[in-house]
Amino acid sequence: MDYQLELRHITYFLAVANELHFRKAADKLFISQPGLSRQIKDMESHLGITLFNRHNRQVKLTPAGAYLKTELTKNLNNLNTILNHAKLLDTGKDGKLNFGYVGSAMQQIIPDLLLKFTQNHPNILFSLKEMENNKQVEGLLSQDIDIGFVRLERVPRGLKTKAVLKEPFCLVLPKNHPIDHSNFKNISQFKTEHFILFDAEYSSSYYEKVMEIFDDSGFTPLISHNTIHAGSIYKLVENNFGVSIVPKSLQIENHPNIKFIELHKIRQRTVLSAVWNKDNQNPILNEVLALIHKKIIK
């Protein structure tokens, strides 16, 4: 009987390729290890190639196996997108789009985008997840998310970006801080203060941009805390643990315990960009990108 390569064989191969351990892969697939090994050997025989090198209980992908892992993972994600889209159409929905974003994008950019988009596409499901920049990149490459909003100056090959907002920075101070708009001159007034900043892991390029502000002001900041959440920064500032610098879009009007001073005279600006995988086959993504490219978002 001719051996037919089926979707389950691809699933088995990818499980072993990810684990590089037959027993662990078998456990995740809920099948026996001998049965999994047999299926992989049958797949290799059918294709006429060796997918794994097995030496002293170590399992490694061959060059052909590594290539198949990359391409099959990408195309299996596309297949899942197509099948999920068909299910949504069957239930009366036009599709689904998964968003990743840094917190500042939710202040205005994403709400404005969704409001404009749903005017003509009321039956779209949106999944929104706040994620740090690097997690978004991982999610876009694996196509776990369709579009991200990041503060990164460079992204890996395969991803495309479009700047949607270029903005100045703001100082964040406790409400009772002696410096305000009336007597603020420059950042050097804060050289003895402790600073609470977004962690470098949030975005190394964003962190370097903030460090340039201090370089231009002629001092190295005393950094007391690093975090990846604006809410944590504000809580620490209002409790007098230090001051901070954030993008203007994170400014909160009429906050009872903190105040903001826009740094419009310095040269540094931070850019929020939309980013997506050019190989993503989600048909809704192109509709959203059309809005972004038309510069409907200000």
Automatic annotation (TrEMBL):
<dbReference type="InterPro" id="IPR036390">
    <property type="entry name" value="WH_DNA-bd_sf"/>
</dbReference>
<protein>
    <submittedName>
        <fullName>LysR family transcriptional regulator</fullName>
    </submittedName>
</protein>
<keyword id="KW-0804">Transcription</keyword>
<feature type="domain" description="HTH lysR-type">
    <location>
        <begin position="5"/>
        <end position="62"/>
    </location>
</feature>
<dbReference type="InterPro" id="IPR005119">
    <property type="entry name" value="LysR_subst-bd"/>
</dbReference>
<dbReference type="InterPro" id="IPR036388">
    <property type="entry name" value="WH-like_DNA-bd_sf"/>
</dbReference>
<keyword id="KW-0238">DNA-binding</keyword>
<dbReference type="Pfam" id="PF03466">
    <property type="entry name" value="LysR_substrate"/>
</dbReference>
<comment type="similarity">
    <text>Belongs to the LysR transcriptional regulatory family.</text>
</comment>
<dbReference type="Pfam" id="PF00126">
    <property type="entry name" value="HTH_1"/>
</dbReference>
<dbReference type="InterPro" id="IPR000847">
    <property type="entry name" value="LysR_HTH_N"/>
</dbReference>
<keyword id="KW-0805">Transcription regulation</keyword>
